[in-house]
Specification:
The protein is of the alpha+beta class. It has one domain (31-138). 30% of the residues lie in helices and 40% in strands. The protein has helices at 2-24, 120-139, and strands at 31-36, 40-42, 45-47, 50-58, 61-65, 71-81, 90-96, 99-106, 112-116. The strands form two sheets. Strands 1-4-5-6-9-8-7 form a seven-stranded antiparallel sheet. Strands 2-3 form a two-stranded antiparallel ribbon. The longest helix is centred in the first third of the chain and has 23 residues, at 2-24. 11% of the residues are buried.
Length: 142
């Protein structure tokens, strides 16, 4: 009987420890609503100006939703830190070849942000631009 009780307690303890570890690893889902006044890119997709929301359902994963709440893009991210937390939520865009590309997302009062992994098209554009710049610089010499 004592052996049965010991096994039962050990099993319950194992389950409690597993659930505690699982709960600790979960990310608090957050939502940022924003009006973006210009055409922009997320990943390899281009979106018109308008109302959008960003949701982080999992760590290092963002979902872009349109004004109707429909998922229109998903991207992987990496964590970045700032010495100070932003007072309000912020999106940071990079301009590449005349396009506005969503690069970072910062949640209000959180010194940890999310940096979007660059798309293959953006990487290829950057490589091509570097080659063009090098050729231009080399070609301008006598």
């Amino acid at each position: 009987m004592k052996q049965l009780i010991g096994r039962t307690l050990a099993s319950v303890l194992l389950i409690v420890m597993s659930v505690a570890g699982w709960a600790h690893g979960q990310v608090t889902t957050w939502l940022i609503k924003v009006n973006i006044p210009f055409e922009f890119n997320v990943g390899d997709k281009t979106f018109p100006a308008g109302d959008y929301s960003l949701v982080q359902p999992l760590q290092h994963f963002l979902v872009l939703r349109d004004s109707r709440g429909q998922n229109v893009a998903t991207v992987f991210t990496s964590g970045i830190d700032s010495p100070t937390a932003p007072v309000s939520s912020k999106l940071r865009f990079e301009s590449v070849g005349g396009q506005h590309i969503l690069a970072e997302v910062w949640q209000q009062q959180d010194p940890s942000g999310q940096r979007l992994y660059p798309s293959k098209a953006r990487i290829n554009f950057a490589k091509r631009r570097t080659t063009e710049a090098r050729e231009t610089a080399e070609g301008s010499q006598p």
